[in-house]
Amino acid sequence: MGSKAVALTAAPLTIALVLTGCGGGGGGAPAGNATADATISIYGTNPPGNMLPANATDAGSAKMQEGLYSQLVGYGADDGRPFDQVAESITSADKKVYNVKLRKGWKFHDGTEVKAKNFVDAWNWGAYGPNAQLSATWFKQIDGFDDVYTKDPDGASGPQKPPTPASKTMKGLKVIGDHEFEITLKAPFSVFTTVIGYTPFAPLPDKFFADPEAFAKNPIGNGPLKFVSFTPNVEIRMTRNDEFPLDQKKVKFRNLVIKIYSQQEAAYKDLLSGQLDFIETLPPSAKAGGKYKTELGDRLLTAKLLSISTLTVPSYLPEYGSLDLRKAIALAVNRDQITKTVLADTYVPADGWVNDNIEGYEKGVCGEFCEYDPAKAKEYYARSGHSGKITIQSNSDGGRKEPLEAACNSIKNAIGVECTFVGATNFGEFRNIIDGSKLTGLGRSDWGADYAEIENFLNPLHRTGGSSNDSKTSNPQLDALLAQADATADRAEAIRLYQQAHRLLPTYFPSIPLWMERGVGARSDNLATATMSFKRRLEYASVTVKGNG
Amino acid sequence: MGRYLLRRLLQFVPVFLGTTFIVYTLVWAVPGDPFAGKCGERQCPDTFVSLMTERYGLNDPLVVQYFTYLGKVLTGNLGETFSGVSISEQLLNSAPITVRLAIVALLIQIVIGVVAGVVTGIRGRGYLDNLVLVSTLFLISLPTFVTGSVLQILLGVEWGIIDPTVSAQATWGELIVPGFVLGSISMAYVTRLTRTSITENKHADYVRTAIAKGQPGRRVVFVHLLRNSAIPVVTFLGTDLGSLMGGAIVTEGVFNINGIGGLIFRNIAEKEGVMVTTIVTLLVLVYLLMSLIVDLLYAVLDPRIRYD
């Protein structure tokens, strides 16, 4: 019977095969052409926003933004170190007032020159409250930000609207000449020159201010790639900007297609068969059992991601208040085993709250507590006086659930306390729980640095009122140290102070370090070289295509 | 006949109003905030949330929102999603692809399913009959996801006969394998339905009369037997077209087809109420239209049925 079944199912399949022999084709990159004429395709997701630089916070739009705009500084492909891009020089004596001089002759894609006012106007527009840009608060360090951005008095859900801001421009931004402007900050901020390489700090051409909505549908930038078209749910097309002045970021291929997929699985199969040239993430099915290593061979790409995964301990839950309990949980997670098995070597154990690819990282800040030791975990747990169960909360999609369930099991086995995973259906819902301080136990808190500074692992995550301080913890000693570090002009000295702040974290465990992601992605056989950046994106300038392959 | 048609068409109006209202209400009854999670690991600025809430009228009572929506639909303006992309544009991009996919699937069902059913029904028990029974059982027991992934890996990745995914144009040729996957389960049902129906009618009085009159075998089978046996099959195929359009989420996901199914799925997740309501309403209309066509076909297939 078995052979019959096989024979019969084969029949319709053969018909399908014959029929499709003449179909198919379409799409994909021409493998035979040299780099200069090549079209490459990369994995993309549908952008949820309107793709203005101050509104693009998701990975889907970021891929386009990265090609479309060049900021004052750019980030090195490997380590994320900033270098002057549109800026010719950025100088500051006190790290409070910055003088920016622009390169001359750098043009937008419509031929107009990038001038100082293009930066100043774009930043003012992005920060202005009523324009409601998602990244508006990125400008908060600039003097006068509070005049253009007002808080909603009763929160977003309340009936009251935020008052109309007093001004449309920030007084901290001053145009000095066509190619020079001055930025005054509210308080000294030593890593500001790194921050301004981030997406929302892009310049916008004069055309934008005439009609922002029309511009958003057909954006004009100053970066290495020009916008061609966007078909929702299908693709974004871009083409090389031949006038791009900076070799370091100039792209060598001609066209870029960001193909939009609803499922990573489909994209991964396209990559395996050479229909897609780059994907920055692997689907769970490829990771399972480390299958990707044999499937991809030398097509595997790795990146020095700047990320850290932790379990946040909500300060508003008294049952998790005990430091001994926090230490017990930290001791009870078998990081080595989970990163090797469940996470298939795409993560490594964390030994602190800062990623190890960051300048200023110190080994073993978390110390003995981030090493698996069930006996000691039991000891600390007994001292904590905690009873009842422990829960770990996260969205369960996107492969988030499995490692945390494993962590829970590890805790259960080590301490002998009940531990359960509480899932939310998607990321949006989970963020709602965190933002509304509605966690009922430990919560997943993963952080990918926006720029390569140790500061970015401390200020947003652990300072009182930080934008991603998920535990809502407040520590005056830490706040004081961070403020002092921010205000320190000397870079080495500033980093020393940030390190000092980092070493404060194990004294109260606002979160429990788990692991750090090692980005794995893949390129197709069509590409000769491709680098994945610290932001887990394709470094466009690094791409070369195989000739006459 | 004309009055019957008119009456049926008029019934569309209350059904349209009812479904749009129910779907609209349900979308907003699902817990969650459409603007949460848009700012990564950060909380979104209040100004953003307030402005979006106001622009899309989300603070109004549900009934007011619904009638605003209805007014827009009736004037032909579907508006934009939260990301500022025109809804009608997205629909116009996806709908033709879904229709093509459904037609391919339907054709595969009819051609393979009906032929296999007729042949086995007429021949009766034997080697071929057993073969078809086993293989249809096999197809029915396989979830679409498995059929799709297996074909994609074998034909697309291993043998390189097709592209693993369908391009943006989604040509007829590219849709044959996805269409086969989508239609495979229903194809098996059609085979079995046709076979049973034929076997049953084979011994009916009118067939015996036709044979006794000395009509040629081909005429007996195609004019008398097949036509009368087609009623349950047509009923099945009619309603199936509707489910092929809306239920293609899995197939569309596997082959990355930008169709209606995936569009609904994504928009439910993103709480794009207007988009979801519009698509679901369209699908309801497709169902209504198909069942009307099926009812009209009854009269064609069976002269005893009359509508007036």
UniProtKB/TrEMBL annotation, chain A:
SUPFAM superfamilies assigned: Periplasmic binding protein-like II (SSF53850)
Region (Disordered): 150-169
UniProt xrefs under CDD domains: PBP2_NikA_DppA_OppA_like
Pfam family, one: SBP_bac_5
InterPro entries from the UniProt entry: Peptide/Ni-bd, SBP_5, SBP_5_dom
Signal sequence segment: none
Domain Solute-binding protein family: 85-468
Name listed for the protein in its UniProt record: Periplasmic substrate-binding component of ABC-type oligopeptide/dipeptide transport system
Taxonomic placement: Bacteria, Bacillati, Actinomycetota, Actinomycetes, Pseudonocardiales
Automatic annotation (TrEMBL), chain B:
Matches recorded under PROSITE patterns: ABC_TM1
InterPro entries: BPD_transp_1_N, MetI-like, MetI-like_sf
Domain ABC transmembrane type-1 per the UniProt entry, residue ranges: 95-298
Compartments in which it is found: Cell membrane
Domain of life: Bacteria
Membrane topology term: Multi-pass membrane protein
SUPFAM superfamilies named among the record's database cross-references: MetI-like
Pfam families linked: BPD_transp_1, BPD_transp_1_N
Record's keyword annotation contains Transmembrane helix: yes
Signal peptide region: none
Record's keyword terms, sorted: Cell membrane, Membrane, Transmembrane, Transmembrane helix, Transport
Main location: membrane
Keyword Cell membrane included in the entry's annotation: yes
Membrane spanning stretches: 12-30, 97-119, 131-155, 175-193, 274-301
The family this protein is said to belong to: Belongs to the binding-protein-dependent transport system permease family.
Name of the protein in question: Binding-protein-dependent transport systems inner membrane component
Organism: Kibdelosporangium persicum
Lineage of the organism: Bacteria, Bacillati, Actinomycetota, Actinomycetes, Pseudonocardiales
